[in-house]
Design brief:
Layout (H helix, E strand, L loop, with lengths): L9 E2 L3 E2 L5 E9 L4 H11 L3 E5 L10 H6 L3 E4 L12 H19 L5 E2 L8 H9 L3 E2 L4 E2 L9 H9 L7 E5 L2 H16 L3 E2 L3
Parallel strand pairs: 3-4, 3-9, 3-10, 4-5, 6-7, 8-9
Antiparallel strand pairs: 1-2
Helix pairs in contact: 1-6, 3-4, 5-6
The chain binds zinc ion (ZN).
Length: 198
């Protein structure tokens, strides 16, 4: 169903290569308290998503099992949200390796995707990702959900008005994002797009 498992399927790491009307939803900075609400909406609307988690927030009791069982994927967003661009190669390696080892260990699934905190990375980051067989995933559409705590309608507009074929969409596990999510999904579908995964 979702056959995109290879780096070749990504264009500049911020779009999937497709000539079809397909987009990818991604949620950063979890697992958070909003996760069950996000999963409920995705489940109701039958939409798959890719979650980029801080491994420092991932404890065994978090509902990671539900995420995988409901057809979503979990990627790494490093350990503690430090900008990798400010770190030495050795420090970057530790952040990345520690984060994927922890996710792999708890979920017993091999992490394939990595999104650097703040989208900031260096050549060293890329060589480490290559070495660890991880695919960097950036984004094309910024929802600015973190800046719209009291204006979820802006989040909807920021996403729905800008999606195009192959867009990877950046959202976060925030309360206002939960409020906006049903209309984001409906708005994207009304424009004729389908949701897919990497
Ligand atoms: Zn983040």
């Amino acid at each position: 169903m979702y056959g995109l498992t290879d780096e070749r399927w990504l264009k500049n790491y911020n779009q999937i290569r497709t000539s079809e009307k397909k987009v990818v939803l991604t949620f950063d900075d979890g697992p958070s308290r909003q996760l069950p609400n996000i999963l409920d909406i995705l489940n109701q609307k039958n939409v798959p998503a890719l979650f980029f988690w801080h491994s420092n927030f991932l404890f065994k009791e978090r509902p990671w099992k539900r995420v995988l069982e409901e057809g979503h994927r979990i990627g790494s967003h490093a350990a503690n949200h430090k900008s990798l661009a400010a770190l030495t190669k050795d420090q970057q390696y530790k952040q990345i390796k520690y984060s994927i080892d922890k996710i792999n260990e708890i979920t017993e699934t091999k992490v394939r995707y990595f999104r650097p905190p703040f989208g900031q990375y260096t050549e060293d980051t890329m060589s480490i990702l290559h070495e660890l067989d991880l695919v960097p995933v950036m984004w094309e559409i910024t929802s600015f959900d973190w800046e719209n705590k009291n204006t979820p309608e802006n989040i909807i507009t920021n996403v729905v008005e800008h999606v195009q074929d192959g867009s990877i969409i950046l959202l976060h596990e925030l309360k206002q994002t939960v409020t906006a999510l049903p209309q984001i999904i409906d708005g994207i579908r009304e424009k004729g797009f389908e949701f897919t995964l990497l």
